[in-house]
Structure prediction request, 217 residues.
Amino acid sequence: MKITILCSDADHPVNAYLAEWIDQKRKDHTIELVRKRRELTGGDILFLVSCSEIIKAEHRSLFSHTLVLHASDLPRGRGWSPHIWDIVQGAEHITLSLLEAEDKVDSGRIWLKRSIPVEKTALWYEVNESLFQAEIELMDEAVDNWHRIEPYRQSEDLAPTYYERRTPADSEIDPYRSIAEQFDLLRICDPGRYPAWFEYLGQKYKIVLEKVDHEEN
Prediction:
């Protein structure tokens, strides 16, 4: 089987998981990882993982199946960074969907879904680990069972909801509110790529949140 993965950002933390998956599958399949849609050459399955480009019908036609990994319980949570928005709003689990790419964003038929618990103390990198591992598992299942999976349409009984692209402004912390009130936002901000920050007395500050063990008495 010829498989292509399109991940737009070479610095995205999911890349380490993708590289390991490619190494494991390379003996059984021909796999390539690309960054731009212009690099697509065709094949059996195209996985879109953290892809920021619109993959049009002309590109999808090069593949038997074009599948998107999207971290929401579709049709709710279409759009950008859904699991971040959900956790900021207090969610204690997130849903990962594997769906067919269509012209209308995140509207395609569902192949697979998986619910992922999120502990209230989990920081951004721990959420990433759970999410990325689930993505790898769904990719495995799609490759191993593509001929048995029966895709189904998204529920028409639920009105779709949409999230906008997050900006640095969405990571702003209010210095006059408590940590407890803003903890879900603090813990999900990647300090390297999308840090939490606040401004006080005319100076802007970056916040890095880390776990430490309780000190022994």
